[in-house]
Model the fold of this input.
Amino acid sequence: MQKQVDYSGAVRTKYPEQLVIAIAKDKDGRANPVTLGWTMIASGKPPMMAIAVASKHYSVECINNSKCFTVVFPSSEMADAALFFGSKSGRSVDKFAEFDCATEPGKEIDSVLLTDAVANFECTLESQLPAGDHIIFVGQVVCSHINTAGGKRLYTVGPGHKLGACS
Ligand SMILES: Cc1cc2nc3c(=O)[nH]c(=O)nc-3n(C[C@H](O)[C@H](O)[C@H](O)COP(=O)(O)O)c2cc1C
Done:
């Protein structure tokens, strides 16, 4: 049986929700990481990934500037980084200067990878679609990386940006 409720009441049932950190460089060449829960694999052949970024976020300028971005699957050890990157704007803060997080250069695109993440995907910007207050960016994956040490992915496990691993 189903009971009609308002949208916010129904969408609260979504957890656990995967999360990624997307990284793109701004016009000064500074890499800006942003934490995103609204993301998906969008194509298998060729491989593509999609991210929904609020139009007001600095990341929109960065992605449009560099025409490429990294999609990172953070590990369950990276909750503090995900919360920092997801609460400060690159418009006013150099997030990688303020939060100690190991990075390495991308192999195929002008962006960076997060060394301790479970996986990193280098994407070239393929298309974008305005969706209400967000913009959906679709990127073609041109290079993929995994952590040789393994590790568990980080998820949002409950409301209020409660982050953790899933079993
Ligand atoms: C767990 C978590 C999930 C988030 N998911 C999204 C998302 O899907 N889309 C989005 O635009 N912002 C999302 N945010 C908020 C942005 O990460 C945050 O506003 C960030 O500071 C924007 O940075 P920027 O201005 O440098 O782009 C999320 C934040 C957290 C902590």
Summary: The mean pLDDT is 98. Residues 58-66 form the longest helix (9 residues).
